[in-house]
Amino acid sequence: MTLNFTRFGSRAKTVATAVVLAAFMMSGSNATSAAEDPPTPQQRNAEIIRNAFALGVGGDENTFYSILAEDVQWTVARAVEPRTYTSRAQFLREGAGPIQSRLTGPIQANVRQLIAEGDVVVAIWDGTATARDGRPYVNSYAWVMTLRDERVVRATAFLDMVVLNELLERVEPA
């Protein structure tokens, strides 16, 4: 079959060539779709983190914290005296617990960016919740997390401590 493009001009010939080339490439000739490739370890780690954030960030194991290893090393970065928790139970009780006890539900995460490199995922996110006094709790976070076997084994959390301290001082725990 011969196509005559002379009456349509060179632009039509270029478009037709592009369509034929695209159809050829999509037909499976020696090209594999990225959707068929298995995810890289970095992509898998980012997916684990993204899915965990979708559960909300609350004070129990049915939220984001379900992906923490039992022996997680979780550090809250502070200008004075950073605090490191040495287990999931300790972190939930002493780190997340005092915050969650002042909120009406889990913190809803708006993940702005996930950066994955090797076994480390950095999550930059904004969290919103309602405090027990009816006022909003809004904070911004950057969490640097190391994963092993699909569990967070080490994390350093950076957040606005002024906003957090205001919540802790203003609202009585449940």
Structural description of this entry:
With 174 residues, the protein is α+β, with helices and mostly antiparallel strands. It has two domains: 37 residues, no CATH class; 133 residues, Nuclear Transport Factor 2, Chain: A. The chain contains four helices and six strands, in the order ααββαββββα. It has a six-stranded mixed β-sheet with strand order 2-1-6-5-4-3. A hairpin with a 2-residue loop joins strand 3 and strand 4. The protein is globular and about 50 Å long.
Spell out the blueprint of helices and strands:
Blueprint: H1 10-26, H2 41-53, E1 68-76, E2 83-85, H3 88-100, E3 108-117, E4 120-130, E5 136-148, E6 151-159, H4 161-170
Parallel strand pairs: 1-6
Antiparallel strand pairs: 1-2, 3-4, 4-5, 5-6
What attributes does this structure have?
Nuclear Transport Factor 2, Chain: A; 32% strand; alpha+beta; 2 domains; 174 residues
Quick description:
By secondary structure, the protein is α+β, with helices and mostly antiparallel strands.
**Number of separate strands:** 6
> Major β-sheet, in short?
6 strands, mixed
Strand order of the largest sheet: 2-1-6-5-4-3
Distance between the termini: 79 Å
**Spans with pLDDT under 50 lasting ≥5 residues?**
1-33
Radius of gyration: 24 Å
Helical proportion?
25-40%
* Overall CATH class of the largest domain: Alpha Beta
pLDDT averaged residue by residue: 85
Q: Could you say what the CATH architecture of the largest domain is?
A: Roll
Kindly name the structural category.
Answer: alpha+beta
Q: What is the total domain count? A: 2
Counted by DSSP, the helix tally is: 4
CATH topology value of the largest domain: Nuclear Transport Factor 2, Chain: A
- Beta percentage is 25-35%
Order of helices and strands: HHEEHEEEEH
**Shape descriptor:** globular
